[in-house]
Specification:
alpha/beta; 2 domains; binds zinc ion; 371 residues; Quinone Oxidoreductase, Chain A, domain 1; 13 helices; seven-stranded mixed sheet; Rossmann fold
Length: 371
């Protein structure tokens, strides 16, 4: 019944255009069959997709899951994971969604059968990279969104309210990742100081979410004044340009010498962890949402002596996207502020270039489909 409705409402072609990995730093436009949704899945017509820094790394170095296996590139693979669209077809027995629903997607569909998935930590699924066990990670282990259609598990879908634009909906997963970081640190940030280090998209959303959750003060550190200004608009009480000021001293000064309870590290700077450890008070909590490429020395004695908790997050776990989407629907912050550029589907290489080179101060570059 549902499938009949779906095919009646939407003309679904057999083939679709898709961007795929070519040589390093190259994507090629090709054609692929439109995938079929299976059990607990729907077919999503992609309406908009944002470029993420991780996409640029995958396009440059190949898939993370492949790197250890030898072959550095996986040609014919479609990258892209920050997409939203319209449900156009339902898998067998799916009644949680209907054709025509606007949805944005989480990246990770856990297998649902391992211990971590059962704990809600599906972004750390123990069957990561095993689609035959039900695991999917859009644009990482299974085909992503720089194409016209994608299959998604229903547990990765978040309803998009009518008033939210396609472009803004692509940012839900970014805000959801920041939300997950605050969640794993304990989540009770109301009235507590939060430092966000690094004003990239996740850091800026970290500021917005922390403020929406009642944190006080929210302090953002970074190197570029334009990004710090945006952080202020998204809710930062104080910003620190670390080119002009010592970040640790500034945080101590702002907090009357006490330091903060939480640091959300989004810069990936080599010394960020040691600085974060000096910004938090005794018993404070640090969540690493970014990391430097190479191993770095860490002052462990300081962490242990001060009972400092250290967390790392992968992606948008524990349904953080649903809570972030709720904040966005309620207008608690304007995520669309970080969306700076839009390109059509044919211009994906240009969109990637704008994101990579931060042309015109690009933050979030969105590719909008024209159906
Ligand atoms: Zn991303
Ligand atoms: Zn699992």
């Amino acid at each position: 019944m549902n499938n009949l409705t779906a095919t009646q409402d939407f003309q679904i072609p057999k083939k679709m255009k898709a961007w795929v990995l070519g040589d390093p730093d190259e994507v090629i436009l090709t054609e692929k069959p439109v995938p079929e949704p299976g059990r607990a899945e729907v077919l999503v017509r992609i309406d908009a997709i944002a470029v993420c820094a991780t996409d640029l790394e995958i396009i440059s170095h190949g898939l993370p899951a492949i790197i250890n296996g030898g072959e550095p590139f996986n040609k014919n693979f479609t990258p892209g994971h920050e997409y939203m669209g319209t449900v156009v077809k339902l898998g067998p027995n799916v009644d949680e969604f209907k054709p025509g629903d606007r949805v944005t997607v989480e990246i990770h569909a856990g297998c649902g059968r391992c211990l971590r998935c059962r704990e809600g930590m599906y972004t750390s699924c123990l069957n990561y990279g095993h689609p035959e066990k039900g695991h999917r990670a859009n644009g990482f282990t299974t085909d992503g969104g720089f194409t016209h259609y994608a299959v998604n598990n229903i547990n990765t879908l978040v309803h998009v309210p009518d008033k939210m634009s396609d472009e803004e909906a692509t940012l839900v997963v970014t805000a959801g990742t920041a939300m997950y970081g605050l969640d794993v640190m304990g989540g009770l940030v109301a009235g507590e100081g939060v430092v966000v280090t690094g004003p990239g998209p996740i850091g800026l959303m970290g500021v917005a979410v922390a403020k929406a959750m009642g944190a006080q003060p929210v302090i953002l550190t970074g190197t570029r004044d334009s990004r710090l200004e945006m952080g202020k608009k998204l809710g930062a009480d104080d910003v620190v340009n670390i080119r002009n000021e010592n970040a640790v001293e500034a945080v101590k000064y702002i907090t009357g010498g006490r330091g903060v309870h939480y640091v959300l590290e989004c810069s990936g700077a080599p010394d960020a962890i040691n600085e974060a450890a000096q910004m938090v008070n005794r018993g404070g909590r640090i969540c690493m949402a970014a990391f430097p490429k190479d191993p770095v020395p860490v002052d462990l004695a300081h962490l242990v002596r001060n009972n400092i908790y250290l967390f790392g997050i992968r992606g948008e776990g524990k349904s953080g996207t649903h809570r972030a989407a709720a904040f966005m629907e309620q207008g608690r912050f304007d995520a669309s502020m970080i969306h700076t550029h839009t390109f059509p589907f044919e211009k994906v290489p240009t969109a990637l270039k704008y994101a990579r080179e931060r042309i015109e101060d690009a933050i979030k570059v969105v590719v909008k489909m024209d159906h």
